[in-house]
Amino acid sequence: MAFSYDGALRREELCQLRSDDLDPAHRLVRVRAETTKVRRERVLPYSAVSAELLQAYLRHRRAMGTRCKALFVSESPRNFAMPITLWTWSKVTRAIGLRAGVQQFSTHTLRHLCLTDLARAGWDLHELARFAGHQNLETTMQYIHLSGRDLADRVSKTMAQLHEWRLKALSDSHVLTESP
């Protein structure tokens, strides 16, 4: 869950991560081109909390005795130590959503949440698109769910900056037109 949110990963990208896609020293994960929707590689950061969870998971995974390259593996007796499937990830995510009382929760919800949170933090639309692996900015805009309050705050701050700039420009022009 943490990796899915941190990287705004699609379920296909998450399920196909391999242990050699990780750079733990820099807390980066490589999303290989062949696993992405648009066939472009991305390198994404993950949080310190995710790094701690990852370390605990990798210790647990080693204890399972798996030699599989896939990062996330099944613990089911039927598919023990095999790569987690899209179906399994969807079922797990759905079950978590139901336990939390969030009926609409899906694997894609975390992607929407991450991109919305980054937009709230002031990320530019082009930065968000690149992070998400989108080629089209309109696609990125569909992922950002800002409230009216978020938008009003943003407009207010922008307008304050514009008014400040105008006042400065006016005072500078008065200085230029005054004779000594």
Describe it.
The chain has two domains: 2-146, Intergrase catalytic core (hpI Integrase, Chain A, Orthogonal Bundle); 148-180. Helix content is 54%, strand content 6%. The protein has helices spanning 2-6, 11-15, 48-64, 86-99, 109-120, 125-132, 137-143, 148-177; strands at residues 22-23, 28-31, 42-45. The chain has a three-stranded antiparallel sheet, with no helix packed on it. The longest helix has 30 residues, at 148-177. The protein is elongated. The model has no long low-confidence stretch (mean pLDDT 88).
Which terms summarize this structure?
single chain; three-stranded antiparallel sheet; elongated; 8 helices; about 55% helix; hpI Integrase, Chain A; 2 domains; mainly alpha; about 180 residues
How many distinct domains? 2
According to DSSP, the number of beta strands is 3
Number of helical elements: 8
Low confidence ranges: none
Structural class: mainly alpha
Order of helices and strands: HHEEEHHHHHH
Helix content: 40-55%
User: Which term fits the overall shape?
Assistant: elongated
CATH superfamily of the largest domain: Intergrase catalytic core
Major beta sheet, strand line-up? 1-2-3
- Given this structure, which CATH class of the largest domain is correct? Mainly Alpha
**Rounded Rg:** 22 Å
Percentage beta strand: 5-15%
Query: How far apart are the first and last residues' alpha carbons, in Å?
Result: 67 Å
CATH A-level architecture of the largest domain: Orthogonal Bundle
Largest sheet, described in full?
A: 3 strands, antiparallel
What's the mean pLDDT score? Answer: 88
What CATH calls the topology of the largest domain is hpI Integrase, Chain A
